[in-house]
Amino acid sequence: SVLTGHLHRAGHLVRACDEWSVDELKGLQRSLHGEAHPELLAVYEAASDNRRQRSSSKKALEAHWAQVDAAVAEGPAHLASVRRDGLCHEVVMSWAHHLTSGVQQRLVREGVEMPSLPQQRHTVVGALQSPAERRVMGEYQQQVSCQQCHTGKIADATWQDASLPASPPVDKAHPGMERQRQCDFQAKPPCGPCDGLGGQRSGDGVEEMVPLECEVLSDASTAPKTKGRYPALATAQLTGETRTPLAVRPAGPGKYIPLGGTLYLGWQGDFMRMRYDFGGLGSQVSVQTYEQARNMSTGATMGIGGGKCECDRSIAGNMHIQSFDPEDPLDPLKLPADQGGAAYLGRVRVKLDGSHALSNGTAVADHYMNWAFHFLVDADEASPSFGLPLRLYGPYGVRQVFDSWVIGDPSKARPDIWQMPKGCAVKAPECSVFAPAEGAIVV
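Above: the chain sequence. Below: its structure as tokens.
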């Protein structure tokens, strides 16, 4: 992983997480807790950043551990490894974000050994049966953030736990339709080439959807013709719908709103850029540098519309253009497919469900999945969009159907596309990633 690599490059002795005991990890975390720099902690606390210190004192830390350890003792045996792996995550994150470089270098000179990040992620499959399981898994989910598709600590507390809901029960009216609406790495049996592609939605229910027409051409045993990725520099039209509010595990009913506009991608040099223009509804522009990603900073997002502009720290880092590619260089977890990593599911023939003439015809596509998201890439070598994205779908998120791809730097046609408009309200220092604007208002 990226952070384990940082430990090696800093000169630490690094021992695999599964070679540590819980007591050893707790002893190390006690030491790091005492070395934390007050100014770093104050920055994270003021921003309600997920990197903030979870216990304000050693006494509070010990009391918290006592509760979690008691739950481990009461619960099934597998909770011991969950507890250990969660502590490995917490120790490594404390080293990376709570210590000054001077303290880190001193610990190296003193020969302090550090754990690696774990090789697996523990996931919840089905309902947790006991209070002990719920307590320990809840602790673990706070210690671990899903960083597969976005690099940077999730800023909004409601998004910090990316664990997925259980698979829906078999749909009585149309058995199998539940797997079309929602299919992820937890599914038993595993998702097939036509599973999880969803359709046009009017509500959260399985039956509140017009499923995408899909025919299996080959399964994952036949190699894909494409890669699960977006182009680095490009422009495309998109239609579909989005759920409001977006959700991983819906807490209540959502509304589905038609979506239409233009997507711009500007991954160039040290910058990862993405812009959506939604017609008369405004624009959303997100920029993150590779340096920010290495430091787990999410970058910044501008919202432009109604004669107003506001820039703030992004809720999550920019979606990786190689999110559905197992070779994604920005994915620090590199999970296997059966634990939520990128997977190729097979080749399909689909009747696309976009609203444009170019996005509602029949297409041959390679089907990729990551976590709970499904991505279709044009696999017809005779098609002008061969190798380019056709569709992105998340069961309680967006359905985006793409067409009219133009490959090339979008700033050539629109030189101001990544610039901050004059008079934009700046609410976070991360907004410096945008080209400076005269008259920006810092609030």
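The radius of gyration is 23 Å.
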